[in-house]
């Protein structure tokens, strides 16, 4: 499948990731000559010098560099959005009832001491004995909610 500009999706997504850095290949028209590492090593200091000294064509060079920066940010955002959408769609979603969400919010807002006291009302000493807050805070909350749900079903 092709985009409106004639690119294929596999071509646009042909990237590599090394140590968290996403690298992509850009095809640049070679109408100005053969661009290679040596050419870039000479051009970059010259471009920097022209922009800093404000000699002609500093404005054109600076505008091009700022565009590269802006488009690089846009590319980063676009790839991030693409990967997050993929991650979201391929990860199984769990649904919670609004009441469960409200209980979790209330329990999360409780201090450790208050949560421990509340847990004593629902959990036996055996179940509470091996749970040490705040390390087991999530476990205590899930145990309380399970016990409350079991009591409601009775």
Structure description:
The protein is mainly alpha-helical and about 150 residues long. The chain has two domains: about 30-90; about 100-154. Helices cover about 65% and strands about 5% of the residues. The protein has helices at about 10, 35-55, 60-90, 100-110, 110-120, 125-130, 135-154; strands spanning about 15-20, 20-25. The chain has a two-stranded antiparallel sheet. Strand 1 and strand 2 (about 20-25) form a beta hairpin. Helix 2 (about 35-55) crosses helix 3 (about 60-90) and helix 5 (about 110-120) runs parallel beside helix 7. The protein is elongated. The relative contact order is 0.05. The model has no long low-confidence stretch (mean pLDDT about 85).
How many helices does DSSP assign?
7
Distance between the ends: 56 Å
What share of residues are in beta strands? 5-15%
Count of domains: 2
The order of strands across the largest sheet is 1-2
Q: How many β-strand runs?
A: 2
Order of helices and strands: HEEHHHHHH
Q: Provide the gyration radius in Å.
A: 29 Å
What fraction, in percent, of the residue positions are helical?
Answer: 55-70%
Give the low-confidence spans. none
